[in-house]
């Protein structure tokens, strides 16, 4: 039977719609049954205060960088999809001139300080390890600062920090965080740094958190190879 001419465009549109929805269904059905996508309900809040700047890697991947290089002082709060065991590696910097070790046109020696809370139970505390890579200014030393080379793989899960010292824990009154600090959840966390809050300017912290038996609710399949890992 011949289709009336005026119905032909409608039939063509219907055909396109059918083909497109079939393609779309195919795309969806390509997802294997064992794949379960994570959602925002699986994330936890990471709160960090660093005097003055930090970047943090979790399980070898960069998850947050302080967006402000030098402000006395800001808090960074981001969502994180946690996976355990969890290796946390943080580079923290007290703001200091790389040659003089001082700030504010070399008039002042600044102090550091760091505190972190992730979810309900991961907190910076005395069990963390730390190492300083930028010291100064040291009275009578020329040049007044010392820089140690930072290992390329300092944030890796397999990095050997077994010879590192434990962090030094500081009272809140010593670090003196700003008023805005109280608007964020840091309950149970300790202020940490290396042994000298004033003269240790670049510090790396590392911690590994075990949660035996922990399994992710989600399954995104075998990890994809990242370009940076090739
Ligand atoms: Ca300093
Ligand atoms: Ca500072």
Explain what you see.
- This protein is mainly beta and 230 residues long.
- It has two domains: 1-31; 40-209, Jelly Rolls, CATH 2.60.120.
- Helices cover 11% and strands 29% of the residues.
- The chain contains two helices and 13 strands.
- The chain has helices spanning 8-29, 172-175, and strands at 44-50, 53-58, 61-65, 75-80, 86-93, 114-118, 122-123, 129-135, 146-147, 165-166, 168-170, 191-193, 200-209.
- The strands form three sheets. Strands 2, 3, 5, 8, 9, 10 and 13 form a seven-stranded antiparallel β-sheet that branches.
- A hairpin with a 2-residue loop joins strand 2 and strand 3.
- The longest helix has 22 residues, at 8-29.
- It is elongated, with a radius of gyration of 26 Å.
- The N and C termini lie far apart (61 Å).
- The model has no long low-confidence stretch (mean pLDDT 91).
- Residues 94, 96, 109-111, 198, 201 line the site of one calcium ion (CA).
How would the blueprint of this fold be written?
Layout: H1 8-29, E1 44-50, E2 53-58, E3 61-65, E4 75-80, E5 86-93, E6 114-118, E7 122-123, E8 129-135, E9 146-147, E10 165-166, E11 168-170, H2 172-175, E12 191-193, E13 200-209
């Amino acid at each position: 039977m011949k289709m009336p001419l005026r119905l032909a465009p409608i039939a063509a549109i219907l055909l396109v719609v059918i083909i497109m929805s079939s393609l779309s269904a195919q795309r969806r059905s390509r997802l294997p049954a064992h794949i379960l996508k994570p959602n925002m309900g699986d994330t936890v809040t990471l709160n960090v205060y660093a005097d003055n700047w930090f970047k943090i890697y979790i399980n070898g991947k960069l998850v947050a960088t302080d967006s402000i290089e030098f402000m006395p002082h800001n808090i960074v709060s981001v969502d994180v999809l946690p996976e355990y065991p969890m290796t946390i590696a943080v580079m923290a910097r007290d703001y200091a001139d790389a040659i003089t070790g001082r700030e504010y046109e070399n008039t002042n020696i600044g102090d550091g300080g760091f505190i972190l809370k992730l979810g309900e139970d991961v907190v910076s505390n005395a069990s963390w390890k730390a190492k300083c890579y930028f010291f100064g200014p040291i009275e009578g030393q020329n040049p007044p600062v010392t820089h140690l080379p930072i290992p390329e793989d300092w944030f890796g899960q397999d990095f050997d920090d077994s010879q590192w010292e434990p962090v030094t824990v500081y009272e809140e009154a010593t670090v003196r965080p700003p008023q805005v600090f109280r608007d964020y959840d840091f309950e149970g966390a300790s202020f940490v740094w290396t042994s000298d809050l004033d003269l240790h300017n670049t510090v790396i912290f590392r911690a590994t958190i075990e949660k035996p038996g922990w399994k992710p609710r989600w399954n995104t399949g075998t990890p994809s190879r990242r370009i940076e890992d090739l």
